[in-house]
Design brief:
Elements (H helix, E strand, L loop, with lengths): L2 E8 L14 H11 L3 H4 L1 E10 L6 H14 L5 E5 L5 H11 E2 L5 E4 L12 H12 L8 E5 L2 E4 L4 E2 L8 E2 L7 E3 L3 E2 L11 E2 L7 E5 L7 H8 L5 E6 L14 H9 L4 E5 L12 H8 L3 E2 L5 H14 L3 H9 L9
Parallel strand pairs: 1-2, 1-3, 3-5, 5-6, 13-14, 14-15, 15-16
Antiparallel strand pairs: 4-12, 6-7, 7-10, 8-9, 10-11
The chain binds aspartic acid.
Length: 332
Amino acid sequence: MPKVLLLHTGGTLGMDTGRPGPLRPGPFEDALRRRVPELWEIAEIDLEIFANVDSSDMEPALWQGLARRIFERILDYDGVVVTHGTDTMAYTASALSFMLRNLPRPVVLTGSQRPLGEIRTDARLNLIDAVTAATRGEALPEVVICFDSKLFRGNRARKLKIAEYDAFDSPNVPPLGGLGVEVVIPPIERKGGAFRLLDRLDTRVHTVLVFPGADPGPHLEIVCSGRVRGLLLLAYGTGNLPIRGERSFLPVLEAAREREIPVLIGSQAIKNAVVLPLYEGGAQAEALGAVGAGDMTPEASIVKLMHALAYGETYDEVRTLLRANLAGERSD
Ligand code: ASP
């Protein structure tokens, strides 16, 4: 019988009153056994209540604790399932993918749009699918999100729908597998290198959504305040941004470069990749040291910035890490 560790962190899946209340391992396991007894036919399951929060309260310290727990335990299991709220699941999946480098076995995040106790809940099938994926062991050495019968690379996934069961997608890469009438999860070859825990993060990151009429002034003040160490600009299309008159963002980029604050430029468009040199705004930003986010999601970009700031020792080292494909988060 395969062995799976199930780490519960909270979210709608475990809620019964619409809010996460205190949850104890015993009663939660009883509820799981009552509602989804099939889980124990798929694998021997050890359940731990790691946390019980709405995922809007997940934070980097919890990502670190989760990564450490998984690092300590995963080799005793075929895989790990993490039950998690859907709202920030893509951030946690990205964080785990950077922290658990060269992962040997699956870490499968799942959750649901409706609580486990409801008749038409999606929690049952998502749990069954997630545990099924976790039993793949060495054939699935990835942090993945399993949702609505599909398996997505965790650091490529996004929550795109608020009130539909197929809430997740990975806009720039196809799903890694499907759990429809047939379970199709093609084996993935593990990248070489030792399994390592890289759990440091520097959270002094500031994100800017560029919009027509946006005042760059407050962002300039933040850059000059000494409080931030990395900047993510979510710009237009290929990474284009305003460069004329009072609304120009170039002074923000100049101030960042003077202070050796790395700037990553992503896009508000959901599909395809940022190509900074294509238009004048992006080209000037690149000339001022900004790095294009390629086809990374905003979630992966923010977490990667925290990770790169913690591991890059110089401005250039951080920029090199941002450009690199560390855990499948961007196309080479
Ligand atoms: N607010 C919930 C959460 O992210 C939503 C969900 O789980 O679907 O924790």
